Amino acid sequence: MAAKKPRVLITGASGLIGGLTWKNLSHKYDFSGLNRRAVPEIPNTEADISNFESILPAFKGIDMVVHMANYTTEVHSWDKHLQMGIIGTRNVFEASRLNGITRVVLGSTGDTMTGHEMEYPYGELAAGEYDKVKEPWKMLTHSDPTRPKSIYGACKVFCEALGHWYSDRYGMSVICIRLGGVLKENRPTLRRQYPGWLDQQDYINMVDRCLSAPGSIKYDIFNAISNNKYRWRDISHAKNVLGWEPKGRAEDYAIDDDGGWHQVLDGNQELRREP
Q: In a structure prediction context, what are the per-residue pLDDT tens digits for the chain, which is 275 residues long?
């Protein structure tokens, strides 16, 4: 008799990342969705994660949660990210706790760290000014200070901390994935994407490793970036703890784009450095 597959709830199941998860890992996990619109291919609860009572039924009988519901546009809108990013994530953790769910895999973001691009050499790498960077540059790890460059990134820093609190207080296993750029085209299209691009198959392998990781991992953060030449966030922690081995390399894709600081600085932001 075949072993029963773990029951996994995906928030944001209709999105690119949520869809990659259930479309590629259904042979290992029994997926259901929590989504604002229908996802006909899997059982789905249509609800807004900012409404706690409406989402509770989706968590009944679930073993693990992959929380990927997100609002990635209007990255400086406090109201948008307050509702989905902060209130919604609290609701996911609390509904998981009430239903005895053992693990939540939290989709975080590299934008928790992109404020470091205000400093050398990370800005130069993002702008494509590789000739100005001396190798080897210092890699930033999951334990280096966060430095978000948007309200979206700042909210994700809060969500990671909230997950740590739920883990410490209630014994829930919370694994945060600081996702690189997962793109529909599955290739970088701008020079600015070279450091932080995440190949779709590398993402699938990462989330699978997080779902199947031993229960002894109560809380951790993993950078999820492909094996890109110009990356500046370290991925050795994920390799050592999870056995994750990314295969993609952004530089394998030639692009007709010269980069530049206009791709790095946001709006009225100015580069402030000591002379």
A: 668 999 999 999 999 999 999 999 999 999 999 999 999 999 999 999 999 999 999 999 999 999 999 887 788 899 989 999 999 999 999 999 999 999 999 999 999 999 999 999 999 999 999 999 999 999 999 999 999 999 999 999 999 999 999 999 999 999 999 999 999 999 999 999 999 999 999 999 999 999 999 999 999 999 999 999 999 999 999 999 999 999 999 999 999 888 888 888 876 666 666 53
| Residues with Cβ within 8 Å of residue 163, at least 6 apart in sequence | 93, 104, 106, 174, 176, 219
Domain ranges (residues) in the chain:
7-263
CATH class of 7-263: alpha beta
What does the alpha-carbon distance between residue 27 and residue 15 come to, in Å, rounded to a whole number?
20
pTM of the model: 0.95
Q: Which two tokens stand for residue 107?
A: 């989709």
Q: Do the beta carbons of residue 208 and residue 28 sit within 8 Å? A: yes
Residue 61: left (phi > 0), alpha (psi -120 to 50), or beta? left
